[in-house]
UniProtKB/TrEMBL annotation:
Source organism of this protein record: Nocardioides marinquilinus
Start and end residues of each stretch annotated as Disordered: 172-191
Top-level taxon of the source organism: Bacteria
The protein's name in its UniProt record: Ribulose 1,5-bisphosphate carboxylase large subunit
Organism lineage: Bacteria, Bacillati, Actinomycetota, Actinomycetes, Propionibacteriales
Length: 191
């Protein structure tokens, strides 16, 4: 096997190809530098984006922690309300038909009247305490006297019934009452 020995034309060809490749390499240097600059810009923008992602992640963790706290508080309130509802359920079930009847029978005029009554309650309470209750206390002390007066009037009525001629007057009064249509007069005459 024979080895080829390069000649001057082979060396020239190798140099021409080396010069073309060197020229292509030199021509590629500005493009490589431009790509490197672009890569640096992309890396800088990626670093900013990464910082923003980290900030959003921290904020999301804070919000998640606060949300967990709110959920815990809400669960405690739900448990408290559930206990109240459980205790009130029998009473509310009993009152439901009454509430439905009141709701069906109540109109705007009724609500207005209830509001007016509520607004007047303080004055009514004051009047009852200062005007009505003292009169009731006075009536309690007068009641025995009224009973005695009633007994005396009954005795007087009985005595008048025994007076001669009173029966005829009584009949005349009854007849006049029947003619005039006043049933009260006959009852008054009997007394």
């Amino acid at each position: 096997m024979r080895l080829p020995i390069p000649g001057p034309s082979d060396v020239r060809q190798v140099l021409d190809r080396g010069r073309d490749q060197l020229q292509a390499l030199v021509d590629a240097v500005p493009r490589v530098l431009a790509l490197l600059d672009a890569a640096e810009v992309v890396v800088a923008r990626a670093a900013v984006a990464l910082d923003r992602v980290e900030a959003v992640t921290r904020d999301a963790a804070t919000v998640a922690l606060e949300t967990a706290t709110v959920v815990d508080l809400a669960q405690a309130e739900v448990m408290r309300v559930a206990g109240l509802v459980e205790r009130l359920a029998p009473t509310l079930t009993t009152l439901l038909p009454l509430a439905e009847r009141v709701a069906a029978a109540t109109g705007p005029d009724d609500v207005d009247a209830a509001v007016r009554l509520t607004n007047r309650l303080p004055g009514l309470t004051d009047r009852v305490e200062h005007d009505v209750l003292p009169v009731i206390d006075l009536l309690r002390s007068v009641a025995p006297d009224l009973r005695e007066l009633l007994d005396v009037s009954r005795e007087l009525n009985e005595m008048l019934g025994h007076v001669p001629g009173m029966g005829r007057i009584k009949k005349n009064l009854e007849r006049e009452a029947e003619e005039s249509g006043e049933p009260e007069a006959s009852g008054a005459a009997e007394r």
